[in-house]
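User: My collaborator sent over this chain with a note saying "see what the structure looks like." That's all I know about it. Can you take a look?
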Amino acid sequence: MRKGRSIAWRCWNLRRPSYHAPGTCTFYGTANTNQMVVEFMGMQLPGSSFVHPDAPLREALTAAAARQVTRLTG
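Assistant: Without extra context I'll predict from the sequence alone. Here is the result:
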């Protein structure tokens, strides 16, 4: 361990690898829990939780969700 590093910095370096992508909160679990609850309630397409925001699949899921909303409300 390098001299002069704060405890907060050391703790952050231990936690940092668990944040694998934007939109996740694996430390407290709040974002992950919200994604699962919304999916379980049927307000999100099945299987769409935890898709990386920059993945092409995320854009495809967003387009599919928009089509589904217009089918259900149109």
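A starting point for your reply to your collaborator: The mean pLDDT is 79.
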